[in-house]
């Protein structure tokens, strides 16, 4: 049975849905272990057991967070070696991808990013060239490192489980090795909305919102969704750059993506076309966005979105 190692960084008080997805995927591929950095609450420890991890490894040093990603790579490399992992799974965040790339060098392992599913033989499926092709790829190296896009696996607890073995991986204190250090962290203003890359529903607005994201935000709040945007909207300063979806923004894969006043340029598609259901609202019936939409509404966003919000609020 293949050994599969999942990296979870700073789980906080409870595991995020994307972490549960990684644990579920790992279990489907073999004997899964977790390498976790940061504090592990009782709820997180219970989730590791519930999702079938056979071992939980933590670093001996506690200062990894103060030094960007390099010390986390050292920890993960040591954890991969000690578990004999054939597959290492990370989330598809920018940091997850950076760790994956550095770990690939460290272990001489192939790295595949933006993965949406993995077969039992370790073959990974992903879209390439801004979503023009779906490919199946497999690393030729003994160890493969995969970063997994959120919302592509249904999180499921294991049918039977037991308490995972606890272990510590010896790593040098990060401060002992010369490295770039984090000197300050800026607290994000909490919006109360789900994280864009993790959200089950995303409502995204584009240039068609003409500087007024109110209707997008109201619909998002009625649906419990995250707010996304095209680059035209973020470049115009109508919404934060954090909300940009696309080739140079975030990649999302929600159950439902509502695109409002967005034309569907290839760079926007690259970040959202693996969404399960795409609903597009655009006043131009010829807009390319309708080529990828499952449901299309030809209409003005300032009519359609408030009507949708009002209907949802009635339920
Ligand atoms: P437009 O293309 O101007 O489309 C606006 C749409 O709104 C039109 O279809 C119009 O019919 C519709 N509309 C207007 N008014 C209304 C109304 N009242 N009601 C309904 N519909 C209305 N773009 C991204 O999104 N993400 C990226 O990550 C990204 N990266 C890029 C990287 C590179 C290297 C380059 C070159 C470009 C990148 N772009 C990216 C930009 C991309 O090419 C497009 O320019 C951008 O996506 C267009 O945004 P938009 O669809 O909001 O605007």
UniProtKB/TrEMBL annotation:
What is the superkingdom listed in this entry's lineage? Bacteria
Cofactor: how and how many bound: Binds 1 FAD per dimer.
Return the Pfam families for the record.
Answer: ETF, ETF_alpha
Annotated binding of FAD, by residue: 207, 230-231, 244-248, 282
Keywords in UniProt for this one?
Answer: FAD, Flavoprotein
GO MF assignments: electron transfer activity; flavin adenine dinucleotide binding
Which parts of the sequence belong to the Electron transfer flavoprotein alpha/beta-subunit N-terminal domain? 4-191
Please tell me whether the keyword Lyase is annotated for this protein. no
Key word Aminoacyl-tRNA synthetase present: no
Q: Which SMART domains match?
A: ETF
Its quaternary structure?
A: Heterodimer of an alpha and a beta subunit.
Function text: The electron transfer flavoprotein serves as a specific electron acceptor for other dehydrogenases. It transfers the electrons to the main respiratory chain via ETF-ubiquinone oxidoreductase (ETF dehydrogenase).
- Write out the similarity annotation: Belongs to the ETF alpha-subunit/FixB family.
Please give the name of this protein.
Electron transfer flavoprotein subunit alpha
Organism field: Pseudarthrobacter enclensis
């Amino acid at each position: 049975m293949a050994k599969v190692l999942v990296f979870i960084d700073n789980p906080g008080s409870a595991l995020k849905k994307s972490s549960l997805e990684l644990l579920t995927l790992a279990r489907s591929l073999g004997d899964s272990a977790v390498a976790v950095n940061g504090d592990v609450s009782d709820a997180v420890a219970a989730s590791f057991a519930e999702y079938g991890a056979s071992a939980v490894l933590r670093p001996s040093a506690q200062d990894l967070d103060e030094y960007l990603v390099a010390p986390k790579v050292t920890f993960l490399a040591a954890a991969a070696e000690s578990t004999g992992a054939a597959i290492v799974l990370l989330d598809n965040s920018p940091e997850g991808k950076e760790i994956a790339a550095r770990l690939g060098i460290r272990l001489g392992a192939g790295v595949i990013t933006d993965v949406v599913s993995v077969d039992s033989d370790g073959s990974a499926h992903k879209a390439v060239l801004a979503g023009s092709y779906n490919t199946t790829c497999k690393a030729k190296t003994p160890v493969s490192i995969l970063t997994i896009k959120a919302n592509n696996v249904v999180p499921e607890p294991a049918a039977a489980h037991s308490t995972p073995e606890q272990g510590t991986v010896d790593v040098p204190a990060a401060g002992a090795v010369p490295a770039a250090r984090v000197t300050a962290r800026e607290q994000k203003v909490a919006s109360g909305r789900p994280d864009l890359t993790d959200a089950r529903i995303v409502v995204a607005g584009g240039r068609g919102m003409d500087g007024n994201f109110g209707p997008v935000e109201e619909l998002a709040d009625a649906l419990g969704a995250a707010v996304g945007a095209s680059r035209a909207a973020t470049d115009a300063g109508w919404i934060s750059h954090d909300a940009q979806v696309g080739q140079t923004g975030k990649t999302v894969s929600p159950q439902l993506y509502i695109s409002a006043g967005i034309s569907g340029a290839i760079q926007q598609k690259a970040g959202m076309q693996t969404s399960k259901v795409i609903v597009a609202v655009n006043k131009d019936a010829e807009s390319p966005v309708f080529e990828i939409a499952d449901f299309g509404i030809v209409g003005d966003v300032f009519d359609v979105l408030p009507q949708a919000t009002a209907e949802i609020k009635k339920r």
